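REVIEWER CHECKLIST
Item 1: Sequence provided? yes
Item 2: Single chain? yes
Item 3: Sequence as submitted:
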Amino acid sequence: MKKFKRVLAVLISALLVAAMFAGCSNGGEKEPEDEKAANVAILQFMPHSSLDNCTEGVIKALDAAGIGHHLEIGSSGSAVSDCQSYAEKMAVSDYDMIIAVATPAAISAFSAVKSASSSIPVVFCAVSDPIEAGIVESLEAPGNNCTGTADAIDLKGQVALIKALQPEIKKLGVLYTTSEPNSISQIRTLEAECEAVGIELITQGITDATELASASASLIPKVDALTNLTDNNVVDNMGVFLQQAEEAEIPVYGSEIEQVKKGCLASASLDYVALGEQTGKMAVDILNGGNPASTPVLTVMDSFTVINTDIAEKLGITIPDSLNDAEKITTAAAE
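Item 4: Structure as written out by the authors:
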């Protein structure tokens, strides 16, 4: 029995020593606990196809990196107030970042984070002129806790496309929201591009979507065609003036492919899913230690030409050989 007790004591001592060495295998420190997975809030200004495509791309990039996300979208009727309310809640919640899709959402997120004295970074997507919007100091060095991607619509390419399809065009109309900074900025560029090829640009501003029907009814008789900017109120309610333009037998040019699918004649279009994906990748880099204040804004300008052949046929417009490389779609195929 005494011999058994001695053997047992030796075994216990050996086990205690082994446990002590195991605990010291990391220099005496405890094994680190798993880090908390990043969680991102996504704020989309309103539901329409262009912004939906942006958000799709953002989520694709976040999913690829294994980053959790929560999405809020403002309703079409009250998007500005919705976004401000969502942004204020996000700024005081346990999120690691806010990704804001479209200029009004980016302005709301930026101001909410600033008001809350929060350190949550804001990464924006599809903000055409972030300097005009007041959320960055410069494109090269944003300076604030905010950066992202800019969708620089190819207005030079758009005007060239309009001129190719309507060589005799004299007057081009555009509807825009007077409170959207990106629209104000785009109109200045569009005016210059139109002037360079002898087209008179006629603008019609609205303060909200309820004014769109009367504004377009006033504008359409004065012009040979309409073109769209990346104006959220206008794009979201495009069906209103598409019908009026069809009755007047004048074409409407879209700012991207989804609008052409819905009845616009043509567009020098950006790929908004790809833009969203680039935004998501930028967000992942910042979550991994990047500094938004010194991360340059990525401006995407590459466009491709898309033409709705059904609409061209209805309007009696011949597609010139110079546009043979354009992507052709039909309204029926898009539906």
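Item 5: Key structural point noted by reviewer: Residues 180 and 231 are 7 Å apart (CA to CA).
Item 6: Recommendation: ____
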